[in-house]
Design a protein that fits this description.
five-stranded parallel sheet; Rossmann fold; alpha/beta; Arc Repressor Mutant, subunit A; 22 helices; elongated; five-stranded mixed sheet
């Protein structure tokens, strides 16, 4: 319903319009009225109507003066003038103000209803255009974030030369020149064992938004989304500034993330600065290694390379008195398998065994670790539908005789076993993320023709948060939700263009575009030609 405010100094005229117009049937709601402009203005400011219907000749403040003020303060309000004076000067001023309709009294029901219908069509068209523009902005933002993440991934994996880094950075308007570089990673997620979820569902999203806003304010920090729960922050500056920038980065991560330990878990790691862009892969390796300790040190927010300090082991002579049982809890392995990544295996295993380094000389303890890790990992893959045989075949330990492993063999055994279990989970066609994506794609297939379909709607259909769904979708599909939806719509549009004679406007509506002009814009942007050119044999 669009809101209407009525101004006329003749109460009979107001009564007639109020009683004779079928407001709701026309899609309107009469929210207020006044006898002159002076009385009307504060009410209009309070009620913010979509349409103002006003007479011209009124005491205290006439309709044209009111229209000027309203147009200035509320540019989107549509103004309809009704007057008993057939005066060209009045009409000229009304046109200058931007009045939608200029009606001469007496105004009967059919004339007013026709005018209201035209006003409503214009409001709806403008709203549709604004929604399309906002959707386009969101699409571009999502695409930019995804592309930026890929850019940083290639830097950290050493896939780009320095020249290529600078060339791609220009595409994203990123300033990469500096004497020093460093990297911070911060993960923030809902506490898994809280048992009741967040009291305020907006808390997690609010904290992530606060992190993003803070670091976007300073050119020394380039923040980007790295994974579902993790943000990366590239730190750059003069050589003498690097330590201060590192400290400031860490202090503000602590400031923003702290204070909700019963509902949120978080951790961060900051590397050591380097003087060259080409050395960033070694900083990433260092930071990624530190981040793997989050499974070994739950509740430890600041992760560092000092494993001895982070996970101290009691001195011993290789006997069981050196064992810290809390550090050998199978739940640590289960949590890593459930939430860790393949590239974190090395750092996790190094930290896990380092925490018990003084007890590894005990054969009994090593046998215990082998059994614990083997049973825990086997139980995990069995829940996925695999067998122990599938986990253990063609592995390092399957080629060894007997149960006992020496201290030097324990580390490669554990790394291989965990890595294979994670790979099996990733390849599992029915894993949690893949099940979610499969369900989401089924929903998209059934609703992609609806103009209103959105990431939030699909996330709700698969019962996860929009942020989580967006990140998992990118990770599993290699493209954003918007890119996938657009690709699906374009494939259907191309089919209809080649196989039918339907007008492109009808095809636009068929594939989920209310505005045919926006459809043509998207089609040309993604396919390299207009719908008409494609139908004539152009494009791909």
């Amino acid at each position: 319903m669009f809101k209407v405010f009525l101004v006329d100094d003749e109460s009979i005229a107001r009564d007639g319009l109020r009683e004779n117009i079928m407001w709701q049937q026309q899609g309107f709601q009469l929210v207020g009225e006044a006898g002159d402009g002076e009385k009307a203005l504060p009410l209009i400011r309070k009620l913010k109507p979509d349409v103002l219907i006003t007479d011209i000749k009124m005491p205290f403040m006439d309709g044209l003066a009111l229209a000027r003020i309203v147009r200035h303060e509320f540019p989107k309000i549509k103004i309809v003038i009704i007057t008993g004076y057939n005066d060209f000067e009045f009409a000229r001023q009304a046109i200058q103000i931007g009045v939608e309709q200029y009606l001469l009294k007496p105004v009967n029901r059919s004339i007013m209803q026709k005018a209201l219908q035209e006003v409503r069509r214009k409001i709806e068209l403008e709203q549709s255009q604004e929604e399309d523009l906002e959707k386009f902005r969101e699409d571009m933002l999502e695409y930019e974030q995804f592309s930026k993440r890929n850019f940083f991934e290639k830097i950290f994996e050493g896939q780009l030369s320095v020249q290529e880094i600078y060339e791609e950075a220009q595409e994203y308007s990123l300033e990469m020149d500096a004497d020093g570089y460093n990297l911070a990673m911060v993960s923030l997620w809902e506490k898994r064992d809280s048992g009741k979820g967040l009291q305020d569902p907006r808390l997690l999203a609010g904290k992530r938004e606060e992190l993003t806003r803070y670091f976007q304010r300073y050119p020394e920090y380039l923040i980007f989304r790295w994974s579902i729960h993790t943000y990366g922050i590239l730190i750059k500056g003069e050589e003498e500034q690097m330590e201060g920038l590192k400290v400031r980065c860490q202090e503000n991560i602590v400031r923003i993330c702290s204070g909700h330990d019963t509902e949120l878990e978080w951790c961060c790691a900051v590397g050591d600065p380097v003087g060259r862009l080409s050395l960033l892969p070694q900083v990433y390796y260092q930071v990624n290694h530190m981040m793997s300790y989050r499974f070994l040190m739950p509740g430890q927010h600041i992760l560092t390379m000092e494993a001895k300090h982070m996970a101290p082991a009691r001195e011993g002579d290789g006997a069981l008195e050196g064992v810290d049982l809390a550090k050998t809890d199978p739940e640590i392995i289960r949590q890593f398998l459930a939430h860790g990544k393949e590239e974190e295996v090395d750092g996790f295993v190094d930290g896990y065994l380092e925490s018990q380094r003084y007890a590894l000389g005990s054969r009994m303890f090593r046998d215990y670790l082998v059994l614990s890790i083997r049973f825990t990992t086997a139980s995990y893959v069995e829940r996925l539908g695999y067998s122990q045989k599938e986990l253990l075949e063609d592995t390092y330990t399957s080629k060894m005789q007997g149960l006992s492993l020496g201290a030097k063999d324990l580390k490669p055994y554990m790394k291989e076993l965990l890595r294979k279990a994670i790979q099996m989970a990733d390849e599992m066609p029915d894993s949690r993320s893949k099940r979610m994506i499969k369900k989401a794609m089924g929903y998209i297939d059934g609703h992609y023709k609806e103009e209103s379909i959105s990431l939030n709607e699909v996330a709700a259909a698969v019962e996860v948060s929009a942020n989580y769904f967006s990140a998992v979708f990118r990770q599993e599909m290699g493209m954003t939700f918007t890119e996938y939806l657009t690709q699906k719509r374009m494939e259907k549009a191309k089919q209809l263009l080649r196989q039918t004679e339907r007008h492109s406007g009808a095809i636009a509506a068929e594939v989920g575009f209310k505005d045919p002009h926006y459809f043509s814009f998207v089609f040309k942007k993604t396919q390299g030609c207009t719908p008409r050119e494609y139908r004539s044999g152009g494009g791909r």
